[in-house]
From TrEMBL:
It comes from Nitratiruptor tergarcus DSM 16512. GO terms for molecular function: metalloendopeptidase activity; zinc ion binding. GO terms for cellular component: plasma membrane. Binds 1 zinc ion per subunit. Belongs to the peptidase M48B family. InterPro entries: HtpX_protease (IPR050083), Pept_M48_protease_HtpX (IPR022919), Peptidase_M48 (IPR001915). The keyword Plastid does not apply. This is Protease HtpX homolog. GO terms for biological process: proteolysis. It is an enzyme of class 3 (hydrolase). It comes from the Bacteria. PANTHER family: PROTEASE HTPX. Its cofactor is Zn(2+). Keywords: Cell membrane, Hydrolase, Membrane, Metal-binding, Metalloprotease, Protease, Stress response, Transmembrane, Transmembrane helix, Zinc.
Amino acid sequence: MGIILFILMNLAVMASIYLTIFIIEAFFGVRLDQGTISGLLILSFIVGFSGALISLFLSKWMAKMHMGVQVIEHPSNATEEWLVKTVYKLADEAGIGRPEVGIFNGPPNAFATGWNRNDALVAVSTSLLELMSPEEVEGVLAHEISHIKHGDMITMTLLQGVLNTFVFFFSRLIANIIAPKDEEGNPSPMAYMAISFALEIALTIFATMLAMWFSRYREFKADEGAVRLDGPRGIYYALAKLGQIPKEQVALPSDMKAFGIVGFMDLFASHPPIEKRLAHIKEVAQEMGYHL
């Protein structure tokens, strides 16, 4: 299923790119010539934002398919009923539309996704529900609701689009400058492709580091939001408990990491180290008059 989703996503991205280029050239008379700065910039913008926007608009559907999320339409037991009521309560307190609520089989984790704050999905794993107390689960839910309230899905999409545009534009601009030229001043096609490909890899690594740094910053903000919505105890003790589990046992798939409750802890991590998050929660709690 993951391979099928990957293929469908790439087909959708390519189709959107070609359709956008066709509309620009056919209806606006603008020829997107990569040999000009303006043409390359417009093409870079189209390529950069197409994948990011499609991923955003399909995020709920992809999460349900890829993670096997079962949306709770009608609670079938006391746990599901409590989960839905708690998510709705937190959403009402946060001033956002009530999101869909789902459960999936997987490591102890949770995530939020959706293209806007009033049409989102909050999903919790069955193992997290088994591992955590109700207070701790509520803290995790408050964290995810905070992501939605702050529009983190949209912000990350816009950032990814800008970074994609940056990578595409500068890799080809620099390749066009330094690639060997023929007598007419045109760059050698093979050299141009090789240089732009190498630059794209290098710039993508740098762009990923920036995106993950911003993701870690948003995690601190979502923790703060959880404290303001639900107090510090739930999110604090939930993270402390997750911190005792080996990281590979709680990580979500790579395309879902950014809005999970925990992730890997390195330079390309979507989440900060749990120790730093716990210290930050303590600081916020003390500022608000709580004692842990």
